[in-house]
Structures are given as structure tokens and as C-alpha cells.
From TrEMBL:
Any Pfam family hit: MFS_1
Compartment(s): Cell membrane
Record's bilayer topology term: Multi-pass membrane protein
Listed name of the protein: MHS family MFS transporter
This protein's UniProt keywords: Cell membrane, Membrane, Transmembrane, Transmembrane helix, Transport
Key word Membrane present: yes
Principal location listed in the UniProt entry: membrane
InterPro entries reported in the protein's UniProt record: MFS, MFS_dom, MFS_trans_sf
TM segment ranges: 56-76, 88-106, 112-132, 153-176, 188-211, 242-265, 277-296, 308-327, 333-352, 372-396, 402-421
Record bears the keyword Ribonucleoprotein: no
Upper classification of the organism: Bacteria, Bacillati, Actinomycetota, Actinomycetes, Kitasatosporales
Signal sequence, start to end: none
Domain Major facilitator superfamily (MFS) profile: 15-428
Length: 443
């Protein structure tokens, strides 16, 4: 029998707050790049291209970070399942902060030519590796400390870091732009929010170093069940279940990144909205996203997350059909309705997808398995979505193709989630993944 003690209330709360702060800082760094890619980098790093081609190239460097995320997830997942969650989360935060700070120091194309986008891509890879290690690990750390019956609530704390990081990144950009003026901001002041990363990460490390190791990992280690090759063992869950889980979560990532990133370039270049209006509108919607996550995770703990997830998947499909038509009216009030709708609907599925993925795997391979699904979904969904949307827009000069793209990917996720939930038993309160014969440790 394991001697690992159930964490006290103070430890649980401190861990939840630490994971929220850490993921907020990581997403702040990641979203700084997304905002800059939409509004600045096409001018600074691809000045010889047309506006559309420059934006497409800028979003391509954004996608590079997503391609690097699975690598980070696999590396950090391996060591998270073998060495522990806590140490890997500290390293991931350092890697992300260093990458963002150095982006703030990269010379532009006018200074060093082609080396400028090359350095940008290298640092974007560093960011992607860092965030790839953070995503699954922070969810596991909070969820595995959770009291019985509150796994969804505590797994939702790190998910709140996504909209929180977006708000802080957008406000940092907007505040710097307002204080410096558009010309100065475009010339060099855009670097300031990136350089602030080093200060924020230092503060985040102080908080993160105070948390304790996950009780689930301690139990696995005490029982001598640490997997030698956790990723290979994670595949014992079965390819059909892995594929359905991936399909179920891919739409949320795609829709979120079109909303958070592509909307900024589309709204300013094609729909005629002011940059500050859009940044504030997206930030306001992200505040709604942040505020409603605890509500939805509490609902999931009380009534079950599967019906809620399916309803949220259907709602986001419907709203994707209305989103760009509302933006295309050119009416600021209707644009705010479109943005607010995203802020209210996205969190319904986003808040529990981390727990759904984590409960697919036993504790001894949960970091590796969760990272595999989460980061693959991020690449297929979020990483490609802004670039695909820009290409569709460029080919037709209309948002219709983008709308149908989002509706199609949402329909695929809804089908995948329905099939997944029909074939996999509902997890019981306080219990993790369905126990498999190959795994003798805590599920």
C-alpha cells in the first residue's frame, strides 16, 4: 500500500494557483508572438512581400512553434513520467521565458537580412518546446492534487492560464503601442513586451518552486512502477481511443486560434476595424473565457462532463457559422457580439479537455500520453488554423471559405467526441483513467 499522504487543503490550493500562474506566464509569452505575427512581424521580418504574403509568412513562423510543441511534449512527458512533474514544469517555464526575451532582441530584416526570420524561427521553436512541456504537465499537477469529486475543477485552473495570458499579452501590446505611438511601436517598441518576459518568468519561478510533487507520481515511484519508456506504454490504451480523443479536442484549438490570432489580421486588413478596437474586443472576450471556466468545471464535477462537452461542441459549431458574417457587417456592435460569443462558448469544451485527455491514461504514463494528444491536437488545430485561414482568404477574397473550414473541423470533433463517449466508460468521481491489465499502478 502506498504511503503517499493525501495533500492538505493548503497544498492543493497553492498547487492550483501555482499552475495557473505558470501557465498564464507561458501563454503570455506564446500569445505575444501570435499578436506580433498578426500585426508587426510581416513588416519587420518580411518587408519585401505583399501584405497577404507577408502575413502568410508571419503565420508560418507562428505555425513552426506548434510543430515544435509535440517535441517538447514528448521530451518533457518522458521525464515527467520518470523524474517527476515538478522539475519538468520548472524547466519548461525557463525555456519559454528565455525564448521570448531573445525574440525581443532579434534584429529585423533591414538590419541582418534573411538571418532575421531564421533567428525568429529558431526562437519560436524554443518557445514551442517550452509550451509543449507545460500544457499537459500543469493540468496533471493540479488535477492529481485535487480532492475526490473535484478533478475537473482543479484541472481547469491551468486552462484559465490560456485566456489570462492572452489578455495580459494583448494589453501589454496595446499599452506599449498607445504610450509609444504607432510609428515608434512598429519601429522598435514592440520589443518591450517580449523583454518583460524575463521579469515575469522570474516571479513565476519563485511561486512554482514552492509546490510539492504530484501525489500520483509519488505513489507510482513508491510502488516501483515508473515506466522505462512511458510513451510506448501509453499506446497500450489503443489506437482507436487515442484517435477519437485527438479528434474530439482538435476543433477547440483551431477555433481558439482563429479567434485569438487570425481575427486581428483579418479585422484590420479586410473588415476595416481599428487595431485597438479589435485587441480590446478579443481581450474582453478572453476575460469572459477566464471567468466562466470555474463555472463550467463545477458543472462538470456535479453533473458529468460528457454531456456538457458535447453541448459545447455543438454550440461552437453553430457560432462558427455566424462569427465571420457578423464581423463582415462592419458594425462594431455586431463585431463585439461575435467576439463575446466566442468568449462564452470556447471555455465550455476547453475547460475539461485537459481532464478528458488525462483520464485516458494511467498515472505512470499520463504525462507522456497526455502530451501526445494535447500537442498533436494543437498542431492539427491551432498551429495550422491561422495559416489555412489566410490562404483561404487570399484565394477567394472572402471569409466564406474560412467559415466552412471552421464548421467542418467542428463537425469532425463533434462526431469524434460522440464516438469516444459511446465506447469508453464514464470515469467515476475521484478515479482516473479506466484501469488496463498492463497497468498495475494507480489509474
Amino acid at each position: 500500500m502506498s504511503t503517499a499522504a493525501r495533500p492538505t487543503g493548503g497544498v492543493v490550493s497553492r498547487t492550483a494557483i501555482a499552475t495557473l500562474v505558470g501557465t498564464t506566464l507561458e501563454w503570455y509569452d506564446f500569445f505575444l508572438y501570435g499578436t506580433a505575427a498578426a500585426l508587426i512581424f510581416n513588416q519587420q521580418f518580411f518587408p519585401s512581400l505583399s501584405a497577404t504574403a507577408g502575413t502568410l509568412a508571419s503565420f508560418a513562423t507562428l505555425a513552426v512553434g506548434f510543430v515544435a510543441r509535440p517535441l517538447g511534449g514528448l521530451v518533457f512527458g518522458h521525464f515527467g513520467d520518470r523524474v517527476g512533474r515538478r522539475a519538468t514544469l520548472v524547466v519548461s517555464l525557463l525555456l519559454m521565458g528565455l525564448g521570448s526575451t531573445l525574440i525581443g532582441l532579434v534584429p529585423t530584416y533591414d538590419t541582418i537580412g534573411l538571418w532575421a526570420p531564421v533567428f525568429l524561427v529558431v526562437l519560436r521553436v524554443m518557445q514551442g518546446i517550452g509550451l509543449g512541456g507545460e500544457g499537459a504537465g500543469a493540468t496533471l499537477m493540479s488535477m492529481e492534487h485535487a480532492p475526490a469529486g473535484r478533478r475537473n475543477l482543479y484541472a481547469g485552473f491551468p486552462q484559465m492560464g490560456t485566456p489570462a495570458g492572452l489578455v495580459i499579452a494583448n494589453l501589454a501590446f496595446l499599452g506599449t503601442s498607445t504610450l509609444a505611438g504607432d510609428a515608434t511601436f512598429t519601429a522598435w517598441a514592440w520589443r518591450i513586451p517580449f523583454l518583460l518576459s524575463i521579469v515575469l518568468v522570474a516571479a513565476g519561478l519563485v511561486i512554482r518552486l514552492r509546490i510539492e510533487e504530484s501525489p500520483s507520481f509519488d505513489r507510482v515511484r513508491e510502488q516501483g512502477e515508473v515506466a522505462r519508456f512511458p510513451l510506448a506504454a501509453a499506446f497500450q490504451v489503443g489506437l482507436p481511443r487515442l484517435a477519437l480523443t485527438l479528434l474530439a479536442v482538435v476543433a477547440n484549438s483551431a477555433v481558439a486560434y482563429v479567434f485569438m490570432v487570425f481575427t486581428l489580421s483579418y479585422g484590420t486588413q479586410h473588415a476595416g476595424y481599428d487595431k485597438q478596437f479589435l485587441v480590446l474586443g478579443v481581450s474582453g472576450a478572453a476575460v469572459l473565457w477566464f471567468a466562466t471556466i470555474p463555472v463550467w468545471t463545477a458543472v462538470a464535477d456535479r453533473h458529468g462532463r460528457r454531456t456538457m462537452f458535447l453541448a459545447g461542441s455543438a454550440a461552437i459549431l453553430v457560432w462558427c457559422g455566424a462569427f465571420f458574417p457578423l464581423l463582415d457587417t462592419g458594425n462594431p456592435a455586431l463585431a463585439l457580439v461575435a467576439l463575446a460569443g466566442m468568449g462564452l462558448i470556447i471555455p465550455v469544451t476547453h475547460c475539461v479537455q485537459g481532464a478528458i485527455i488525462a483520464d485516458t491514461f494511467p498515472a505512470r504514463v499520463r504525462y507522456s500520453g497526455s502530451s501526445l494528444i494535447l500537442q498533436a491536437g494543437a498542431v492539427l488545430g491551432g498551429g495550422l488554423a491561422p495559416m489555412i485561414s489566410t490562404a483561404l482568404l487570399g484565394s477567394s477574397a472572402s471569409s466564406t471559405g474560412v467559415t466552412w473550414y471552421l464548421v467542418a473541423i467542428c463537425a469532425a470533433s463533434l462526431i469524434g467526441a460522440t464516438a469516444l463517449f459511446r465506447t469508453v466508460p464514464e470515469p467515476q468521481p475521484g478515479v482516473g483513467a479506466t484501469r488496463l491489465p498492463e497497468f498495475a499502478g494507480e489509474a
